[in-house]
Amino acid sequence: MVRIEKCSFCGGPIWPGHGTVYVRNDCKVFRFCKSKCRKFWMKKKNPRKFSWTKAFRAAMGKDLVVDNVYDFETRCNRPVKYDRDLVATTLRTMRLIDEIRMKREEAHWERRMQTAAAIETRAKLFDIAQNIDLYTKVPEVQRDAVQRAEAEIEAHKQQMKEDSYKLNMKFKEMKNAQ
Predict the structure, then answer these.
(1) Which CATH code fits 1-57?
(2) Which of 4, 48, 58, 96 suits a disulfide with 65, CB 3.0-4.6 Å?
(3) Radius of gyration of the chain (CA)
(4) What is the pTM of this model?
């Protein structure tokens, strides 16, 4: 069985027979998935500054990386002696870990989308505040519609705060359950 390596620059997967290997004078091995990664690494570029790398996504909080679930994915250089019970428990545990990982990633994605929605509503409110003179020149019916829309936005913001609080409480409960 051949293992899938990780790129030393972008952190992406390198499948068997793909990518390049660079070995430094001190015998440190660097693997690159594509020439773009190798060239940037040779130029001593920082992977956290490129938005397409895993390091950038981790640094900006876009990917869930600081989690105990990812600690299970460790490299084992020595083969383990085959044991039927061990294989069965390992497979069961792998399924369980996968389910936990999916739930946590989904919760992380929902938190990110909530903050994005809050930013979007704030931008809309700012736009309304900047162009309020356009709204004051419209007839009374449309002005009432604008006021209703602003009230809906306020209600939506309040609902987002409550949902965010509930989600954070659920996340804390999940963390404490471990």
Answers:
(1) 2.30.170.20
(2) 58
(3) 25
(4) 0.47
